[in-house]
Amino acid sequence: MTDQAAFQRARSAQAKQAREAAILDAARALGRRRGIREVTLTDIAAEVGMHKSALLRYFETREQIFLDLTAEGWREWSAALRAEFGKHERATPPTISAAFATTLSERPLFCDLLAQAPLNLERNVSIEAVRRFKLVTLEEVALITGELDRLLGLTEQQAVDTVATATGMAGALWQMSTPGPRLRDLYTSDPRLTHALVEVEPRLHRVLTALLTGLEGAGRAHRVVTD
Length: 227
Hints:
By secondary structure, the protein is mainly α. The protein has helices at residues 4-9, 13-34, 41-48, 52-55, 62-85, 93-105, 108-119, 127-152, 156-177, 181-189, 200-226.
């Protein structure tokens, strides 16, 4: 835990950046341990070692902290996904869907944030904070879209739909895969309910493979008709 007096003494721009980084680190750690929904602003302040009122000098709300972490997650995940794509000159739908499924399932905090962002994180921050977040996501989606065009020949709209499906489903599936101890006990105690326990990676892989196979087939049919 960071010393509260150190936070009170810091005055420079560099010190402000260090405080913000410490707050984000604390929120990230708590989110991984508890899940985003269970972490309060008071929890984050206590983890850092400062009063909640002092923390609000750096972030307008709890939601802004987690929205900033979501933007960070988009940049990091996009880079990892594109690194996987960069291993191929051309690719098949199963190869592309495997890259999506693996890189997303390896990032449970990001999956949690993907689910929370539209539900509540974007709804309790300033319009400017939402604008900054959306611009980050647009930039990363554009980079991924370029790779999907190169590897599969997807149109821009098809590629955007693929990214939206992948990230939307990753967020939803992660929530389903982490029901909490009481619900997990219920689902495992009754064979009729075991379908409620979801594994993110294989389910995401299957769905994306079906989507991309359909898009690839539609593209071939369109080229035949227009040629």
